[in-house]
Write a structure and sequence with these properties.
The protein is 0% helix and 48% strand. It is mainly β and 126 residues long. The strands form 2 sheets. Strands 2, 4, 5, 6, 9, 10 and 11 form a 7-stranded mixed β-sheet that branches.
C-alpha cells in the first residue's frame, strides 16, 4: 500500500521559513512526478510546486516562485518544499502527491496524481 507521510508544518511568523518533507513508501513504481498542493479553508485546492522524479524539471506558480523551492532525494524517497518569506496568505494544510506513470494530465493539476498524503498544517501569523 502506497503511503505518503508529510512533516515539517507548524506556526511561524510572517517572513519566516519552514521546510516540509514528504516520504513515499510501499510503492512498486518509480513516480513520474511528485508535487505539493495546498487548500486554505473555503478555497479550492491550489497547486504549489512539482518536480519530475527523474531528471530535475520543476514547476511552480507566480504566487510562490522565488519564495518556495521544491527538491527531492530519490535515495530517501523523500520530497521537500523549502519555504521562505512566508506570508499569512500561505496559511493552509499542505498536501504531498505522487503521480504513477504514465502521466495522465499536467503535473500542475491534481488530476495527474494518484496518491495523496494526509497533509501538514502551515500557519503564518502576521
Amino acid at each position: 500500500q502506497v503511503q505518503l507521510l508529510e512533516s515539517g508544518g507548524g506556526l511561524v511568523q510572517a517572513g519566516g521559513s519552514l521546510r516540509l518533507s514528504c516520504t513515499i513508501s510501499g510503492h512498486t513504481f518509480t513516480p513520474y512526478a511528485m508535487a505539493w498542493f495546498r487548500q486554505a479553508p473555503g478555497k479550492e485546492r491550489e497547486f504549489v510546486s512539482a518536480i519530475l522524479w527523474t531528471g530535475y524539471s520543476t514547476f511552480s506558480t507566480s504566487t510562490t516562485n522565488g519564495r518556495f523551492t521544491i527538491s527531492r532525494d530519490t535515495a530517501k524517497n523523500t520530497l521537500y518544499l523549502q519555504m521562505r518569506d512566508l506570508e499569512p496568505e500561505d496559511t493552509a494544510p499542505y498536501y504531498c502527491a505522487a503521480a504513477a506513470p504514465p502521466l495522465r494530465a499536467s503535473v500542475m493539476t491534481g488530476d495527474a496524481y494518484d496518491y495523496w498524503g494526509q497533509g501538514t498544517q502551515v500557519t503564518v501569523s502576521s
